[in-house]
Amino acid sequence: MPEKRQEVTTEGGLDVAGQRDKMRDACKRLADAGILVSLFIDADEEQIKAAAEVGAPFY
């Protein structure tokens, strides 16, 4: 799913590191509803660490 209006398809992974608070809230709401959370991120150390920090167990 594209993140920007001008994209036809996603050009890369989510920017979890730049949106930690929003991602943390979304991951918690989904997990509280019993929904498994997985994030599509770039193979970047900062993004991997951020995904773990926001509570996405599958990244």
TrEMBL record:
Entry EC no(s): 2.6.99.2
Keyword set, alphabetical order: Cytoplasm, Pyridoxine biosynthesis, Transferase
Swiss-Prot/TrEMBL GO biological process terms: pyridoxine biosynthetic process
Query: What GO cellular-component annotations does this UniProt entry give?
Result: cytosol
| Molecular function GO terms recorded | pyridoxine 5'-phosphate synthase activity
Question: InterPro entries from the xrefs?
Answer: Aldolase_TIM (IPR013785), PyrdxlP_synth_PdxJ (IPR004569), Pyridoxine-5'_phos_synth (IPR036130)
Q: What's the protein name? A: Pyridoxine 5'-phosphate synthase
